[in-house]
Amino acid sequence: MTLAPGHETVDGTREAEALTDRPPPGGGCPYLRGATAAQTNGQEGQRLGALGPAPVVELPGGVLARAVVDPALAERLSVGPHVSRDAARHWPGYREGTRTVDGVIAQWIGTRNALNSYGDDHRQLRSPIAAALTRRRVEAMTPAIESIVQDVLDGLEGIGTDQNIDLVQSYALPIPHEVITRLLGVPAEHLADFSAAAAGLFDTSAGAEDMARSMGAVLGLLDQLVASARARPGDNLVGDLVRAADASENPLSDTELRDQLMLIIIAGTETTVHAIGTLLVHLLAHPDQLALVTSGQVPMEDALTESLRLRPPIASVPLRFAVRQFRDARTGEQFGEGEPILIHLAGANLDPGRYPEPERFDVQREGGSRSLAFGYGPHACPGAALATREIVIAVTRFLERHPGARLALAPGLLEQTASFISNGYTSIAVELG
Ligand code: HEM
């Protein structure tokens, strides 16, 4: 039997033999490109689906992983204890320090935070974040979100009705940045510096040096936030994390606290930017669906759910690992111990078995809420309620203020993020009307 070079071998058992049934990896398996000018992440996922529920793909750095595009299998793997997000514990080679991983995969798996942890460790790291993102805090933040949105809309006043704006830069981006800044309780004297540095993290046109500078600035400011919260924890998310860390039997170091905050910034900003932009594109491109929402027949929340299904802001989140070898009874798929697994949310959300005519934007779709856009199982997004509130307010208020807004380019001509992780439009030209 031949396993791909670099592929985790399974201790010679009967299950290992079954791995030969897969398409030959290495030379034969597809390279996961992500969105390009020729395809969306969802379309790439659909193509992978033709190869099976979890075909082997090659990721940057030569990592071979099972791309799970079958939504039911994705749910089972996300829930089961036999799959972990902790590379330091469950990826042979990486665990021992004999495997080098670089680039985007290294960035995603390299820090200790809620996302990259497993079992009790995960519960310890996640619970203070989840506790800080309760419905109570979302309700408490709603007036601030309304006021941030009004300020950003006011900033657009004076732009001619026949002029194009870039909806991403001028509208979708500033709102989540401001919300995260308030959520973290960044003090007034650091607001401008923090916002500029955090915005730099998502500037895809920035070179490596600028990116490193923004990263350094954000980390430095987060260090200051952690230090002052250690001295006097306030009624904000940093205060909650510090209190939970102090109360824990296994307290987090300042660096670990900072990594947790970084996760929240990364997870909570770009995702929400894309969700606002994509929902506006979907609605503006489908006047019949827009009319259902603006007339009040369909709640904006349902339109958001459908938009997130059709083009989830995170196409896939690297990376998971099989804790031990196992076989999924329903599909017969075998997973070797330590084998990397990539849940392909964008592909799973276009599964025709679950969503008839999956590429149609239908705000009245039944079952849309079962999409995987916010993940599934113990790692499912703890910021979903906050994100939903932000996006619904942002899109509703934009359409109220600019009922004649039109896309200047057809959606197919809009530039998208060139990534298999982040999934959205990099700029959206709109005439305010
Ligand atoms: C539309 C906006 C958003 C989308 C689509 C989204 C989606 C996701 C997804 C797919 C995951 C990973 C689930 C997995 O690995 O199984 C995740 C995790 C996470 N998200 Fe979100 N997210 C959004 C907004 C937010 C916001 C606003 C915050 C916080 C302010 C946030 C905080 C987190 C955190 C901390 C995790 C890691 C949870 C864990 O591993 O236990 N997200 N999100």
**Which topology does CATH recognise?**
Cytochrome p450
- What is the CATH architecture annotation? Orthogonal Bundle
With strands numbered from the N-terminus, the spatial order across the biggest sheet is 1-2-8-5-3
Order of helices and strands: HHEEHEHHHHEHHHHHHHHEEEEHHEE
CATH superfamily: Cytochrome P450
Number of domains: 1
What's the helix count? 17
Radius of gyration, CA atoms, in whole angstroms? 22 Å
Mean pLDDT: 88
Question: Approximately what portion of the residues adopt beta-strand conformation?
Answer: 5-15%
Q: Low-confidence parts lasting 5 or more residues at pLDDT below 50?
A: 1-26
Counted beta strands = 10
Beginning-to-end CA distance, first to last residue: 63 Å
Write down the overall geometry. globular
Structure write-up:
The structure is a single chain. The protein is an alpha+beta fold. The chain has one domain (94-431): Cytochrome p450 (Orthogonal Bundle). It has 17 helices and ten strands. The chain has helices spanning 14-18, 41-49, 71-79, 87-90, 103-109, 119-132, 135-156, 167-172, 174-184, 191-201, 208-231, 237-247, 254-285, 287-294, 300-310, 345-348, 384-401; strands spanning 56-59, 63-68, 83-84, 164-166, 320-322, 326-327, 334-335, 340-343, 406-407, 429-431. The strands form three sheets. It has a five-stranded mixed sheet. A three-stranded antiparallel sheet has the order 4-10-9. A two-stranded antiparallel ribbon has the order 6-7. A hairpin with a 6-residue loop joins strand 6 (326-327) and strand 7. Helix 6 (119-132) runs antiparallel to helix 12 (237-247), helix 7 packs across helix 9 and helix 13 packs parallel to helix 17 (384-401). The longest helix is centred in the middle third of the chain and has 32 residues, at 254-285. It is globular and about 60 Å long. It starts with 13 loop residues before the first helix and ends with a strand.
